[in-house]
Request: fold
Amino acid sequence: MQQPDAALLATSTPEERLAAEGIVLPRAPGPLGAYRPWVIVGSLLMTSGQFPWREGKLAYTGRIGSSVSPRDAYAACRLAAINAIAQIKDAVGDLGRIKQIARIEGTMQVATGFRDHPKALDGASDLINSVFGEAGRHSRMLYTNTEMPLDTPVLLVVLAEIHG
Amino acid sequence: MQQPDAALLATSTPEERLAAEGIVLPRAPGPLGAYRPWVIVGSLLMTSGQFPWREGKLAYTGRIGSSVSPRDAYAACRLAAINAIAQIKDAVGDLGRIKQIARIEGTMQVATGFRDHPKALDGASDLINSVFGEAGRHSRMLYTNTEMPLDTPVLLVVLAEIHG
Amino acid sequence: MQQPDAALLATSTPEERLAAEGIVLPRAPGPLGAYRPWVIVGSLLMTSGQFPWREGKLAYTGRIGSSVSPRDAYAACRLAAINAIAQIKDAVGDLGRIKQIARIEGTMQVATGFRDHPKALDGASDLINSVFGEAGRHSRMLYTNTEMPLDTPVLLVVLAEIHG
Reply:
């Protein structure tokens, strides 16, 4: 993918790139049950499923392709990625400790016949690529859930490798 | 989460805590196809999808929120977790070799409109937290399948880190 | 599982076994969005979701159990596994560098009431077992998606451990 400014990416930090995009990371959100929002195994950091929280409320609810437009689905995936980055920062402190974003797994609640979920998930991928640059170039998988907790249109899992 | 007896947790083994809960681990169940029930990669142990087997039969079948009550869904997740612990014990022999339960992934078969699956999955989380104590504090993700093999209401995957 | 010729498996390479099955690996297919087809974390190689591509086109589309027969579903899973092996070869060059295939995750688009997806997924498992022999004996998980990108009946994820 094209990056807007390769020189900037090479010299700036993920935190600076977040600021350049006007993104203020929220507090890492708590879980919806008897589990933790993230765990580290060796050098691998795994988040639990992240919702599109904004200021303590779900910014989007519903089914992608009916009550949630493709444009809002893209935005919801981007917002869930912001929450995932907040978890990662909570786990490692300094985002410069991330060697690479290894994987994004997007799970979506879609309407019958809606097949453009990969474009929606690009909302998460584009942000991760933009914030982490070359270190953000992740693998990906897409799932759908028939019904979602809190009627969220998306749950996002991010796996990241931490520098040894 | 609150643990009933922190002193007990600090000194007892997972096997002792299973016994204290009255749980006798079954034999590790075999697979439903040409695969293995668990694999170890480095220090990471991954189970295949675990069913709620009891004495060689599925103790629960059907769709959560219609033929399977929320209470039975919780019990099915707990039972699938018992089967997962049996796989882990088959893999490592002594559960004290588990450094941490890193992740639970619950995949459920739910009725239209049923959104309380996180509470059902707590059936697995609560048991893992209780048996493994601090080492059981896992990350989590929830999926739904439209149709399940053998009509099981849940398939449970557990990832665990083994002491080096 | 039974292998047709244990002596052959012990002495031949995965590439030789592919040739013996008459399989010519395709070029590793590109992604459907802003992500990479595979990533390596430490010794763990993860593919993104692999489609049943044949010569640049999806060889199978539709819903397993209605427009896609069980036999074609098995073939689609086998073909997706061939594409996954192409990704693995793109990542490591020589398939002999694979210590083990750790996991297959099959995600399927199935018709209402269709429950024989484990047999379909054996199309991937049988091939991996045949090509990688003892090193192919993987764990497995099965998901369903309500709707699939490009109407594919299956997306296949493969995790492999690379020799250190």
